[in-house]
From TrEMBL:
Its membrane topology: Multi-pass membrane protein
Transmembrane spans: 16-35, 55-78, 90-112, 187-206, 227-248, 260-287, 294-315, 335-360, 372-390, 396-421
Keyword Flavoprotein: no
Protein name in the entry: Amino acid transporter
Organism encoding this protein: Folsomia candida (Springtail)
Length: 474
């Protein structure tokens, strides 16, 4: 009996966060449906959501310092050549996997055919279905904004705002718009990442001269990770609160799910195929290791992402899982993940492809081979431009729909179930970042070994921390 108790104790000690988050999700769902039957007041719903709001705010508090300090420390701990190779491997992997998901989404939408002309009339009778105003921005606008945000004019402002192209109608004009660049509230992840990478890379070339500055950033990063390790145990409570409150928000879950069941099923099948089959096969073929052990080690991050509905907000948990459970080299994980939460949107690419074809099918629009190619390429590109915040993909669907001449106003119909579908695709985005970190570490083992050998030659122990002690300068 004592042996079994010891095994259970060991399992809970090693997987306490996973068990807690799963339990929180289950408790949140059960409590949500029970409380829903009691017709709760708005005050009750606010109180139910309050613990989750506090957890989200805590994670948001940690995101920016973690991204900046991790990238500076990580890129400075590598030499410029290694940084370039890591970046090339990372972006290549993200681009290929996003393209693959877009193609898979197209094939699933063609095979399952989730759209039907009767769906729109069914959904329009439900008050929960909203309307999204058409966004006039083009694909070019989005990528020009991407470049503007990648090189911010002011690094201080990049910490709390980003640049967005806005079209406003001219007074008295017909189809005439004034194009302006406006600041939008929310930290500019691309600008912060770019500046951190440049700063770290230059520090790596200065060797001893920059070592005191690197030690400061590394110490700050160590403190951040310690804060994450402490705060992370509050996430099960936040998961329960957020899921419960979301169940209370939706007025008629059964009716909405019935009408859009085939669409949800198509997206879920695509996400499950990629998450449970494709990623596992890639990991097994490349690393020759059991992929499901790695999957379990990073699953708490995916569950947290499901609850908070954002890969950016869940990033502190993702890094903690990779560092402590998956044992991925922090020099790689702290380099890949902050970039991944900004540009790696596997689930988003798949969703945009399926949603675009769904709307075309619903309006009985016959799509040609060229249209499918346009959807594939555009969905891949706009997914890279998507931000890691809730429901960011819905506005990007407009761009894809314009390429196939499909009505954009029908995007509003997807608001009914996007609270669920967005959470599902967020788990794929987060897991994609985790598997990318493991694969890039494997592909970069020669460069990492060379740096370890160099450190040994300089009298630094081979098993010393590479990211948090300011060592490893090129």
């Amino acid at each position: 009996m004592s042996s079994k108790y010891a095994k259970v104790q060991t399992f809970l000690k090693q997987n306490g966060l996973l068990v807690g988050n799963v339990a929180g999700a289950i408790v949140g769902l059960i409590c949500g449906f029970i409380i829903k039957q009691l017709d709760p007041s708005p005050v009750t719903r606010d109180l139910v959501a309050y613990p989750g709001e506090i957890v989200i705010r805590g994670l948001q508090l940690l995101v920016l310092p973690v991204v900046f300090c991790s990238l500076v420390s990580g890129s400075a701990s590598l030499n410029v050549k290694a940084n370039g190779k890591l970046a090339a491997r990372t972006f290549s992997y993200f681009l290929v996997t996003s393209l693959f998901n877009a193609v898979m989404g197209i094939f699933l939408a063609i095979i399952i055919h989730p759209g039907g002309s009767a769906i729109r009339s069914e959904l329009q009778s439900y008050s929960t279905v909203g309307v999204i105003e058409e966004r006039e921005n083009t694909l070019l606008d989005n990528f020009l904004d991407l470049g503007r945000n990648f090189v911010p004019s002011n690094i201080i402002s990049a910490f709390f705002e980003q640049t967005t192209t806005l079209y406003t109608p001219k007074p008295g004009g017909v189809d005439a718009f004034t194009k302006t660049l406006v600041p939008r509230r929310g930290w500019n992840a691309l600008g912060v990442i770019f500046y951190a990478l440049i700063l770290g890379s230059v520090m790596s070339t200065l060797e001893e001269k920059a070592k005191p500055l690197l030690q400061i950033f590394s110490a700050f990063d160590t403190v951040n990770m310690k804060m994450i390790t402490t705060f992370i145990w509050a996430t099960p409570v936040g998961v329960a609160s957020l899921i419960c409150s979301k169940v209370l928000e939706v007025s008629d879950i059964g009716a909405l799910f019935t009408s859009l069941l085939t669409f949800i099923f198509t997206v879920a099948i695509g996400l499950a195929l990629y998450q449970f089959v494709i990623m596992q096969l890639i990991y097994f073929i490349v690393l020759k290791k059991n992929p499901f052990e790695f999957y379990l080690s990073v699953l708490p991050a995916a569950i947290t992402g499901f609850a908070v509905d954002s890969s950016s907000i869940a990033m502190p948990v993702t890094l903690q899982c990779l560092d402590e459970k998956a044992k991925v080299d922090p020099r790689v994980s702290h380099f890949v993940v902050p970039i991944g939460v900004t540009v790696n949107m596997d689930g988003t690419a798949l969703f945009i492809s399926i949603a675009s074809i769904f709307i075309a099918q619903m309006n009985q629009i016959d799509l040609s081979i060229g249209s499918y190619v346009n959807i594939c390429i555009t969905a891949t590109l706009v997914s890279i431009a998507a931000s890691g915040v809730p429901s960011a993909s819905l506005t990007l669907i407009f761009i894809v729909l314009h390429t196939i001449n499909a009505p954009v106003h029908d995007v509003g119909l997807l608001l009914a179930i996007d609270w669920l579908v967005d959470r599902l695709r967020t788990t794929n985005n987060i897991l994609g970042d985790c598997y990318a970190a493991a694969l890039v570490e494997h592909w970069s083992k020669d460069e990492l070994k060379q740096m370890d050998d160099r450190d040994v030659q300089n009298g630094i122990p081979a098993d010393s921390p590479k990211l948090n002690d300011g060592v490893g300068l090129a």
